[in-house]
Design a protein that fits this description.
The chain is 39% helix and 23% strand. It has 15 helices and 19 strands.
């Protein structure tokens, strides 16, 4: 997946000249050591770049504006080693336009009880300086991430690494372009939304194309290209004929190969990173895109079904944020289908007609060709598998008419009790936190959609931080959710965000 940027984060240390040059030399030395050790930790997904100590209005303002102009700078980490008069930061903060983290730390981990003196006190004032700085950021109403603890603590480093991924999501949001093939499914409410407001809030561009314009790209794919990709499919996946004629089966698979190549060529040529389709408007396409869309998602494209551009953009965004996660388990589009309501075994079976990303697969992936009543086309080929176990997050971005709301649900993915041999789609099974009854009730009260953007590799905190940076409402459904409190939260939010 390409973002086109070699992102880095600037480390900016605040101080003042009240204690002389010798103090400032120590401030710079300490700051450099912190940056070096953070980069050597192996925990952070992006490089931290040390910047000279900031002590004046002019220098602070110039540094923040340089950060704005540097395309590789994805955010600034600030730390006040000593006291830094906060009015010096006002102009710089006013003009700064990128993610901001306040690392509330100090160079020393422990108070040096035996030899602490006033020189040490004067030179090590993070508990003092960070509060002065924090006050002005709060007074100015600037969104930022505050991380507290010693810089060498692995937990602090993990929090910083987590915020970096959110910051990349904030930066890349304005580069997301969604191609809408056809339009929204007729009479469906939740997949609709204000595309102009989405561009204002998130920077997304959402454009519509007639289905036959993209179908032309599919028709222009050569037989040689299709045959080569089909061979790749047959080498990579299990082939489940299930009584179908092998030649006829391969022909159906070849249709999806042509769609994958044609769609990707269209998206690359026109610079789109996400796509939506609609089974009710397929034009000259021979099949509903299934295997083709699954493969495109695996390559990093966002997807939403039935015209759901909001979920398509969120899937792309979350794939960007999760990129490079060690031992990644995957990110995908999903849809709620049916419940298991047996006591002690509650959960929601997740799938879609065809389009679930293979990154979430657990075990072998197979190709099936099966009838599909939706779409009125020939039997489409699709990838079939079950998904991994473990904790994950499912989110739904909804348009409430006067504002957007991001609903964030912690879920626990499990294996179903028995195989489902007659269900020819990729599936996941999860229980929403804190349990099915409370989780589903809260989701419905919040107006959540039946489509979700889902990831094993991101957290509710990361998604909430992204929403805060975008200036939209976020509600959490997790182990602590209580319906009475949740209803009150929705009421209070309706006043704050109106």
């Amino acid at each position: 997946m390409k973002t086109g940027k070699n992102y880095k984060f600037w480390f900016c240390t605040g101080s003042q000249d009240l204690y002389g040059d010798e103090c400032l030399k120590k401030v710079a030395e300490h700051s450099r050591i912190i940056v070096e050790k953070l980069n050597e930790s192996g925990v952070l997904p992006f490089e931290v770049v040390w910047k000279p100590t900031l002590i004046t209005n002019e220098v602070i303002r110039r540094t923040f504006n340089e950060a704005n102009q540097d395309e590789e700078c994805a955010g600034v980490i600030t730390w006040m080693h000593t006291f830094s008069p906060a009015k010096s930061w006002i102009l710089g903060l006013q003009e700064y336009r990128k993610p901001l983290c306040h690392l509330h730390t100090q160079f020393n981990e422990e108070i040096p009880y035996d030899n602490i003196d006033m020189d040490f006190m004067n030179e090590n004032q993070s508990a003092h300086g960070d509060r002065e700085y924090g006050h002005i950021v709060t007074r100015m109403g600037i969104e930022r991430k505050v991380i507290v603890g010693h810089w060498s603590d692995p937990e602090v480093q993990k929090k910083l690494a987590s915020w970096m991924r959110t910051a990349i999501g904030i930066m890349e949001s304005s580069h997301i372009r969604v191609a809408r093939v056809a339009d929204n499914m007729r009479n469906v409410a939740v997949t609709e939304g204000d595309k102009v407001e989405a561009q204002i809030k998130f920077g997304w561009e959402i454009d519509a194309y007639p289905v036959n314009e993209i179908a032309e790209y599919v028709e222009q794919v050569s037989k040689g290209e299709i045959d080569a990709l089909v061979e790749e499919y047959y080498d990579k996946y299990d082939i489940l004929l299930e009584g179908r004629d092998p030649k006829e089966f391969r022909e159906h698979v070849a249709v999806q190969a042509g769609i994958e190549i044609g769609f990707e060529r269209f998206l690359e040529e026109k610079n789109y990173q996400a796509i939506v389709t609609h089974f009710g408007d397929l034009g000259s396409l021979k099949q509903l895109p299934g295997l083709a869309i699954q493969r495109l998602m695996e390559k990093g494209y966002g997807f939403g079904a039935e015209g759901d551009w909001k979920t398509a953009a969120m899937v792309r965004l979350m794939k960007i944020m999760a990129e490079g996660t060690p031992n990644a388990k995957g990110t995908s589009f999903f849809e709620d289908y049916t419940y298991n309501l047996v006591k002690g075994k509650e959960g929601i079976l997740q799938a879609h007609m065809l389009e679930v990303c293979p990154t979430v697969a657990d075990g072998p992936i197979s190709i099936k060709v099966c009838p599909l009543s939706m779409g009125d086309r020939e039997d489409p080929a699709r990838l079939v598998y079950t998904c991994k176990e473990g904790p994950a997050v499912a989110v739904s971005l909804v348009d409430l008419g006067n504002r957007f709301r991001l609903i964030i649900n912690d879920v626990e993915c499990k294996k179903v009790e028995k195989p489902m041999p007659k269900l020819p789609v990729a599936t996941a099974f999860w229980t929403p936190m804190p349990n099915l009854q409370t989780g589903a009730e809260a989701w419905i009260l919040a107006g959540g959609a039946h489509h979700t953007a889902f990831s094993y590799d991101l957290t509710a905190e990361q998604m909430g931080d992204w929403a805060a940076a975008m200036g939209i409402e976020a509600v959490y459904i997790d182990k602590d959710t209580n319906i009475r409190s949740f209803k009150n939260e929705l009421r209070w939010n309706s006043i704050y965000y109106r």
